[in-house]
Specification:
This protein has about 375 residues and is an alpha+beta fold. The chain contains ten helices and seven strands. The strands form two sheets. A four-stranded antiparallel β-sheet has the order 2-3-7-6, with no helix packed on it. The chain has a three-stranded mixed β-sheet with strand order 1-4-5, with helices on one face.
Length: about 375
Amino acid sequence: MSSTLESKEHQALRAAVAALGQKYGREYLARTAREGGHPDELWADAARLGYLGVSIPEEYGGGGGGIAELSLVLEELGAAGCPLLMMVVSPAICGTVIARFGTEAQKRTWLPGLADGTRTMAFGITEPDAGSNSHRITTTARRDGDEWVLTGRKVFISGVDIADATLIVGRTEDAKTGSLKPCLFIVPRDAPGFGRSVIDMELQAAEKQFELTLDEVRLPADALVGDEDAGLLQLFAGLNPERIMTAAFAIGMGRYALAKAVDYARTRQVWKQPIGAHQAVAHPLAAAHIDLELARLMMRKAADLYDAGDDMGAGEAANMAKYAAAEACVKAVDQSVHTLGGNGLTREYGLASLITASRVARIAPVSREMILNFVSHQSLGLPKSY
């Protein structure tokens, strides 16, 4: 990006994070996943250098920046082949929600640890029967004296095995209307009745996916984050950064794959010149680059709107950025694998596993079809179909 769009500070941050990413690279992350481990060394280095906590307020040990800086960190790690998926969850969703809406005690308990990497939080919203319809969430929270009692199930929750707690989206009964409203609760990993089981995924990733059960999980009153009557606002304050960070994840992955393909196309010679001289090879790679750059611009817009406090504007832009980045990533990975031919399917070149990984951004945290629903309703004013 040119300096007219990105500050010198952001350019310096990009360069520094890229250097860290190059130190580890794709093989480190692939090996960690194959061995069933976690990228603890990279996580610790990113934390020590201040990258994990870049968006957390300074008074709680963070860098005092915003989602613009945090998404930049994730994009550059992804471009180096070693993105940290838990960055989407722990600092971006949970850290943001607690920083904006948590009590002073919650902030002091969680934010310094999220910033320096010594504590991690997972985020639990998706349910087996609700899918993308957050209005069908059935995990309920009822008051019992000074405690909350949570009951329900969650599915496809990342990193619960390494998280100190999970920020769970439940629903409480509105005393005035009797209807259920969303609320957020901090559930410690060792809370009685809080169970987890790993989901067997084809996706090769260090971060495992879990199904959670909450069987009469008792929590103190201060487990509730923020205002019980502002749960929806607080929820979307976390979901917008999630979409922006998913865009960063996808753009970084797309850039990584494209760089591998471009390098190969420059050097692979079958006839008299490198295959990259042929327009049938060069043009699709150029188009993939254009799509990634366009998605990156929308991600930057979404992050800037969010950091400026424009939640409504950020909601539209974040959804668009996530959609554009996912599409650009899938196309970039597909074209990169195709450019390498048979080599694109070998472990040596490390691109084939990205075919599965690149689809994640199309599916999670919300499907591209639901984003098109959002844009058609909210941006274009078309009637709902559901």
